[in-house]
């Protein structure tokens, strides 16, 4: 990945803002920047070039402001720790809005707002919201600049943390700007932390290390293809290329244009016979995407390489296959649970040039979080900035503490990571965090059953969004917080891929999180998930045996490679158990949920529910 380093320019003094067009030849872009500046009243406007010099200048400035703490350069070169406000640690789904013209186009799973009314509200909160601050203009590309699946955007923001993070997570700067100037369409994205340095009566007020506002708006206008985010500096709310553009706006674009924007990792698997497979997998936030994308197989001869860990854009290709890119350029990963034993690839990747948010600080100026090492340090400063010892009642790192790091630093990054035309997807996996019911792995017998599998994901809620951790919730396609339109239409769009893609991927369900009665995980997970990937790849090439169950095909006896693995037979039995009574309840829950989608629920989904019910009735299934 290369980013060109050139043009940068600063325009200062509020009076000039009306006149300045900025360093762009694009009249629409400069008019928009002027319009936002006139609304938000920053002291200065800086056009960002995405260069290393810019990154260094902004990080130094944030160190001076107390936003970033430089880590020990010997232990963690080029790296920083940010501590957010304790109220600004996750995505805020209750303040995330889809403002389609008609309420029914947003659907029952989204917070809908009438676009005109929302625009008026936003104009109110953004008025003067950047006073005393600098407004940065960040042109960016999602996907390789100019690629056939890529898209452009411009984020304006008053948060240098957002600028630096966008610089890691997307392809920002000069080449993206050049593509916009050449006439490509772009998505405007406005972001303000909502903490002007001038109070309501015009008095100056001091800045704080992590400015934000209790009032938050994460607003999307899918028809106008426009994003407005207010009040938060946290990743998913503030790095607008990610969830806001690449999922919510892009899913709506994809529906109109015949492609898919998905909450999916993409990985490349190479078998011992050097056969290559590309897999995409959707799991809800904090349910194992980054870990699977960087998995180090325990099975000899198998190799896994990383293409993406969070988002996939997939389009029918000229070859009749579904072709996927990772639109991002970096990883915004969950720190807790990432350790040398679980994810050594990620640990290597994090050795330098990382921005950590809400992890703990060690006494020698390095970082630590729960699960990073076997031993717990005797003393830490926790994510709130307070002294911490192993006796402290709260975790040292926030459960949703994150790292932000360039994909190019990932030791397992695939050679086709940057391929503009994407990779051909052989299989799609759906999964969630389920302590019961859902087997370790199943295969859908056909596309329609596969779409049902995606639609029926439920998962125990994690710390990635506000809400009660552990509570089971429906999260179809792991897109509940991210679908930019009606979920019933979304299912129909997935079903319609059968008419658009000649060689459809096979669809599988996985669940690494099933637990025994004693609460422990039944499956070792992490690197051992390569055993499940092996069965999936063998199914793709037609060499692995499967057995039918009412909920899909499962590995036939002996087909799942368990060589050298110490999982008790009883646990294995439980990992694949399909309890008819529990499943009957599961289907009741699902039917009640699907009923919310009314006549927008495709008939095939209801038929799939009936098919599973019939199967459960026909066979008293035990395994
Ligand atoms: P993502 O947010 O979907 O990318 O999820 P991550 O890969 O960051 O994982 C979220 C959390 O789940 C981390 O604490 C991981 O350690 C944990 N996790 C990931 N994969 C597995 C697995 O196979 N088994 C178990 N038990 N935990 C896992
Ligand atoms: P995750 O990404 O899926 O890696 O947790 C952030 C999010 O979904 O909020
Ligand atoms: Mn995500
Ligand atoms: Mn992740």
From TrEMBL:
Subcellular location as annotated: Cytoplasm
Binding note for cofactor: Binds 1 Mn(2+) ion per subunit.
GO MF entries: GTP binding; kinase activity; manganese ion binding; phosphoenolpyruvate carboxykinase (GTP) activity
Domain Phosphoenolpyruvate carboxykinase GTP-utilising N-terminal, first and last residues per copy: 32-255
Domain Phosphoenolpyruvate carboxykinase C-terminal P-loop: 259-612
Residues at which GTP binds: 286-291, 402, 433, 526-529
Primary location class: cytoplasm
One Gene Ontology cellular component annotation held by this UniProt entry: cytosol
E.C. code: 4.1.1.32
Residues that hold substrate according to the record: 91, 234-236, 285, 400-402
Reactions listed under catalytic activity: oxaloacetate + GTP = phosphoenolpyruvate + GDP + CO2
Keyword Kinase in record: yes
Binding site for Mn(2+): 243, 263, 310
Pathway: Carbohydrate biosynthesis; gluconeogenesis
HAMAP family documented for this protein: PEPCK_GTP
Record function comment: Catalyzes the conversion of oxaloacetate (OAA) to phosphoenolpyruvate (PEP), the rate-limiting step in the metabolic pathway that produces glucose from lactate and other precursors derived from the citric acid cycle.
Subunit structure: Monomer.
Protein name per UniProt: Phosphoenolpyruvate carboxykinase [GTP]
